[in-house]
Amino acid sequence: MQIIRHPAEMTAWAKEQAKAGRRIGLVPTMGFFHEGHISLMRRAGQLADQVAVSLFVNPTQFGPQEDLAAYPRDFERDCAMAEAAGVTALFAPEAAEMYPAGFSTTVTVGAELTGHLCGASRPGHFAGVATVVCKLFSIVRPDLAVFGEKDFQQLAVIRRMNADLNLGVEIVTHPIVREADGLAMSSRNTYLAPQQREAALSLSRALALARKMAAAGERSAERLTAALLDFIHAFPETAVDYISFVHQDSLQPAVEIDSQTVLALAVQIGGKVRLIDNGLVL
Ligand code: PAF
User: Fold this and answer.
1) Cβ atoms of residues 268 and 279 within 8 Å
2) Separation of 129 CA from ligand 1 center, angstroms?
3) Do both 30 and 60 map to the same domain?
4) DSSP assignment string, 67-101
5) 87 vs 50: CA distance, rounded Å
6) CATH number for the domain including 233?
7) Which domain holds residue 256?
8) What is the tens place of the pLDDT at every residue in 38-57?
9) What is the rounded distance in angstroms from the CA atom of residue 37 to the CA atom of residue 28?
10) Which CATH number does the domain housing residue 89 bear?
11) In a domain, 48, yes or no
12) What is the DSSP letter of 254?
């Protein structure tokens, strides 16, 4: 596996692959790999000849009060895991290489996709994500890019940007990978104190409850939301950021749920750890 630090070198690598007729699959990440990341790398390996992973904790997608400095990092471990997963190029630039002095461009996807859900409590987050992913697509020039479905709003934003800017990258998605107890895997799970683990399960259990109620015939998003709010708040140290039933593509709120409705959840655990989860309800 080649470790590449500079955008120009990464693009040179990409051009070599293209010249040799090899398809590139990109997995954009912020590192601190877990089985969720590894499954994205394996998926890219099934679909492309070369797997490139970007490892960049992107400062522009963190708010001033967020966890940029504390975000978990372990470069040596990540390299070993990526190599074992068949990655051929690991792109790990410094922030100054991605955002050199004078950098002045932001990619902003419209408020209908970015103004609610995580976008409401994390202003500027999706502009940071869209900008860095656009840059990664330009630098790595992948044929396809694989993203996890846990970041469901991010996925909608990236699809829109990719289509609107004619970037031509095939966007491949991969289902949420969960711990044995149902907790969606996330690098941020390492922030959870042992006693907060039970509270963290409130998200996947709320999803299961919504599915059970829907299977029993409940279709009202309002009644489901009220039931889930009570259910999650019964767990200690939980504060609901949002519980939303939205259309899986448009992300617009559903009044009555149907087979296209996704339940999206964000919950603060212990005032510090913000976890998200989502899934189709019916
Ligand atoms: O999902 C993530 O890890 C990040 O938002 C991404 C897509 C790598 C952009 O920094």
Assistant:
1) no
2) 6
3) yes
4) STTTS---HHHHHHHHHHTT-SEEE---HHHHS-T
5) 7
6) 3.30.1300.10
7) 187-277
8) 999 999 999 999 999 999 99
9) 9
10) 3.40.50.620
11) yes
12) P
- Within 8 A by CB and 6+ apart from 38, the residues are 81, 85
179 within a domain of the structure (yes/no): no
Amino acid (1-letter code) at residue 92:
A
- What is the total count of domains within the chain? 2
- Distance CA(119)–CA(149), nearest Å, equals 17
Please report where in the chains the tokens 């519980």 appear, as a residue: 243
CA of residue 157 relative to chain centroid, distance: 11
148, 222: one domain = no
Contact indicator for 239, 200 with CB cutoff of 8 Å: no
Q: Both 205 and 115 in a single domain? A: no
Of the candidates 37, 116, 125, 174, the residue annotated as catalytic is 37
Burial call 44-70: b when 16+ CB within 10 Å, e when fewer? bbeebebbbbbbbbbebbbeeeeeeee
Query: Strands 144-148 and 89-91, how do they pair?
Result: unpaired
253 forms beta bridges with: 246
> 252-276: per-residue pLDDT in tens?
999 999 999 999 999 999 998 999 9
Model pLDDT for residues 61-88, shown as the tens digit of each residue? 999 999 999 999 999 999 999 999 999 9
Quote the CA–CA distance of 20 and 12 in Å, as a whole number.
13
Residues 149 and 203 both lie in one domain: no
Residue 56 tokens read as: 């960049």
3-state secondary structure of 199: helix
218 CA from centroid of ligand 1 (Å): 35
Q: What percent of the chain has pLDDT over 90?
A: 100
Q: Are 174 and 149 in contact (CB under 8 A)?
A: yes
The answer to whether residue 34 is catalytic is no
* pTM, to two decimals: 0.97
Q: Which residues line ligand 1 (CB under 6 A)?
A: 28-30, 58, 61, 129, 132-133, 151, 154
